[in-house]
Design a protein that fits this description.
509 residues, Rossmann fold, Hect, E3 ligase catalytic domain fold, 4 domains, six-stranded mixed beta sheet, four-stranded parallel beta sheet, 15 helices, 39% helix
């Protein structure tokens, strides 16, 4: 018996390419019957044709449905769906439940017309619905595994499994026993399930260009950037379109792809269940040699890969240092000019990127000079100064802030509205062997409280720290081991005494 009150409802339809039973017409017919039997009146339709149910992304109709329900733009009280799988094959069953909950929270119930459970919220219905959601997701996982395994078997049999053929190659339609039928044009697909596809050399001019690319790389020693420039200079069209020009990455792809030597490759990347695309290393590829006629021979292709593997990016830090050490043993010295001029070493850039600087790389292979030693000392002092600044601020971050960043000179702290300059004093030695410490200031620092940090004899660590009221009247002066000038201030037994020492010194100013 049909209820007297008719409930306005919307229908949601979705079809991927799974099976004819899920055609939009079949879904709509089932939903109309359910509506007529249960007192619903269909007033609008949301339809996602040829859309995967794995995620909400790209399902514009479902996105619009949820937006209308949440914002109150809907004029219906129910949503009719063919079954749980049409709502989605989400890999997380909670995601499907979440979208349904959003509708129910806003007064719109979701009904699954072909499912055995009704709209009542009971324990059996809840369990059945949860199980159906998991089964919908599991179906996609099992189907994905079967499709991937099938594609691998086809590739191992020497056939092409998909994708554009690439420059210099074309797709040839063949039978299962490799009898050639015709060349497939762009956008064309095979019509028989038993037919297969292989790659064949394309137009003679493209084949000639591919061979020239390998020749310039292997024999002439040109890298992709130079090869692309040469092709542009000659006016060589890219994919037959003179509006497109060759670029280094296009050349590099040709040089690295095994299909140009007749190999079928499967598993270079995966996009399983529409998760983030994963790219795999070459040792995980499924490579079938001799699948079709190659443009270049296997030996040429192998030599090409060996050249790529010799690039600096594939070398470890120890490999780079070993080559640098060999240059030192050969020449007895090292310099930027020698590194750049060596045929066996990369430019100085990889050394500075890997080790922080060229001098640091020189230091690691045991080469030193007065200039490099000074550079190494300056770098060590910058690190030590940064550590002192960090330690000072950590004593009381609420009251100690960095007022002036360490640019070319010194950092400056702000403590209770007072400015405190950091003076890192290196230890120097006179000709008599007596030690002294050099303190240099600027005009802006002379009236500031100063944190004087003296380093030990090797300038490797802190010897002592003193907070002084100011450095007025002095731009550059020397401190002795026992210096009365420092007695005006407050010595720190530990970095934690900094704040108390600043308070004490500021009170006596």
């Amino acid at each position: 018996m049909i209820p007297l009150t008719v409930i306005p409802a919307a229908q949601y339809l979705r079809m991927s390419t799974e099976h004819q039973q899920y055609s939009l017409e079949n879904q709509s017919e089932m939903i109309r019957e359910y509506a007529a039997q249960n007192g619903f009146e269909l007033i609008c339709t949301y339809s996602d044709a040829a859309k995967s149910g794995l995620s909400l992304k790209h399902r514009t109709a479902l996105q619009q449905l949820l937006s209308d329900v949440v914002t109150g733009a809907n004029n219906y009280k129910a949503i009719l769906v063919f079954d749980v799988s049409r709502w989605g094959r989400f890999q997380d069953a909670d995601e499907a439940a979440h979208y349904e909950f959003l509708c129910r929270q806003n007064g719109v119930k979701v009904h699954y017309c072909a499912e055995p459970f009704n709209g009542e919220r009971s324990l059996p219905n809840a369990l059945m619905k949860a199980l159906k959601r998991v089964m919908a997701g599991e179906y996609s996982r099992e189907l994905s595994a079967k499709v991937r395994a099938g594609s691998r078997r086809i590739s191992e049999s020497g056939f092409r499994t998909g994708g554009v053929p690439g420059y210099g190659l074309r797709r040839m339609l063949v039978s299962a026993d490799r009898v050639r039928r015709c060349v497939l044009q762009k956008g064309e697909r095979k019509s028989l399930q038993t037919d297969r596809v292989i790659l064949v050399p394309g137009p003679p001019e493209e084949v000639s260009n591919v061979k020239d690319i390998f020749r310039m790389f292997v024999q002439d020693g040109r890298w992709p950037t130079a090869i692309a420039a040469q092709l542009r200079e000659k006016g060589t069209p890219y994919f037959g379109d003179r509006r497109k020009e060759w670029y280094p990455e296009a050349v590099s792809r040709i040089l690295k792809n095994p299909k140009y030597c007749g190999c079928s490759v499967f598993g270079k990347s995966s996009f399983i269940l529409r998760a983030r695309r994963a790219h795999y290393t070459q040792d995980r590829w499924t490579v079938t040699k001799g699948a079709w006629e190659g443009i270049v021979d296997q030996q040429t292709f192998d030599r090409t890969q060996a050249i790529f593997k010799s690039q600096t990016i594939h070398k470890s830090d120890s490999d780079l240092l070993a080559e640098l050490r060999a240059l030192l043993n050969e020449r007895g010295t090292l310099s930027e000019k020698l590194v750049n001029g060596s045929r066996h070493l990369p430019s100085v850039r990889p050394f500075t990127r890997r080790f922080g600087s060229l001098s640091e790389a020189f230091h690691k292979v045991g080469y030193s000079s007065p200039m490099l030693s000074a550079t190494h000392t300056r770098r060590r002092l910058r690190t030590l100064k940064a550590q002192i600044v960090s330690d000072v601020i950590k004593t009381d971050p609420a009251n100690i802030t960095l007022f002036q960043l360490d640019g070319h000179f010194r950092p400056r702290f702000e403590v209770f509205g007072l400015q405190v300059s950091l003076h890192l004093c290196r230890c120097l030695k006179r000709s008599t062997g007596k030690l002294y410490w050099l303190l240099q200031t600027t005009v802006g620092e002379q009236n500031c409280i100063g944190l004087v940090v003296r380093l030990n004899a090797g300038n490797e660590d802190v010897m002592d720290m003193v907070v002084v009221p100011d450095t007025h009247g002095q731009f550059s002066f020397q401190l002795s081991l026992v210096d009365p000038w420092l007695d005006r201030g407050k010595r720190l037994s530990a970095i934690g005494d900094f704040l108390a020492s600043v308070k004490c010194v500021s009170a006596c100013r």
